[in-house]
Amino acid sequence: MYKKISHYFAIPLAICCSLFMALKPSPELDRTLYSTEGMEFDYSMSEEIAMSTESSSIDSEITPHAADHIYVPYLGKSYNGFKEALAFKESRGDYFTVNTLGYLGKYQFGAETLKLIGIYNPNQFLYNPQLQEKAFLANAARNKWILRKDIKRFVGKTVDGIKVTESGILAAAHLAGPGTVKKYLRSNGNYNFSDAYGSSVKHYMKKFSGYDTSFIVAEKRAKAIL
């Protein structure tokens, strides 16, 4: 009988204790124990993995101070590393930007180049990141097919002081078109085209050398299809 009575008191007592502990005011937190005042932190990235913040096709729209604080992931020498490094140089990776010459998106495509890979609505292209990624791959595949003989002939050789790689060739073709890259290689670097912002074929050949672009399959009529 006594056990039964004790059960009736135990449950309300436990509830009361729980409410008391929950509603009991806690002592004020001493925030000085967690202060970082006086500490030094290093947020810099090593030169080996930091992406360059050199001038690009939209440099005129980015203040030098802002550029000092832009960082991107390090993806190594993979295909993703290649396309993201190139995108960072072109637009700081911004899908929705248009430069002063009208080039569009993350990879800074011109309207005429888009037509070659089956895109006829630049406005729709600008606001569709997935289509932009498809366009980059399609354009690279088309350029790789056009330059297939030059890739076979020149990769591994030195032209104008630059060791030629497939990724360097494809990056330069993205900048200036495959025909211009052919002229550069076949003139031993004497025909070194530069765009309106001062980026040259030689610079792209060097900057984007050594990436693994085997993922890109040469295709004569490559199209960007969702």
Describe the structure.
45% of the residues lie in helices and 2% in strands. With 226 residues, it is mainly alpha-helical. It has 2 domains: 2-34, no CATH class; 59-207, Lysozyme (Orthogonal Bundle). The protein has a two-stranded antiparallel sheet with strand order 1-2. β1 (158-159) and β2 (162-163) form a beta hairpin. α6 (129-146) crosses α8, α8 (166-176) packs across α9 (178-186) and α8 (166-176) packs antiparallel against α10 (201-207). The longest helix has 22 residues, at 2-23.
If strands are numbered along the chain, what order do they take across the biggest sheet? 1-2
The helix count comes to 10
Biggest beta-sheet profile:
2 strands, antiparallel
CATH architecture of the largest domain: Orthogonal Bundle
Topology of helices and strands:
Blueprint: H1 2-23, H2 64-67, H3 79-91, H4 111-116, H5 122-126, H6 129-146, H7 148-154, E1 158-159, E2 162-163, H8 166-176, H9 178-186, H10 201-207
Antiparallel strand pairs: 1-2
List keywords for this structure.
single chain; 226 residues; mainly alpha; Lysozyme; 2 domains; two-stranded antiparallel sheet; 2 strands; 45% helix
Summarize the structure.
The chain is mostly helical and 226 residues long. The protein has helices spanning 2-23, 64-67, 79-91, 111-116, 122-126, 129-146, 148-154, 166-176, 178-186, 201-207; strands at 158-159, 162-163. It has a two-stranded antiparallel sheet.
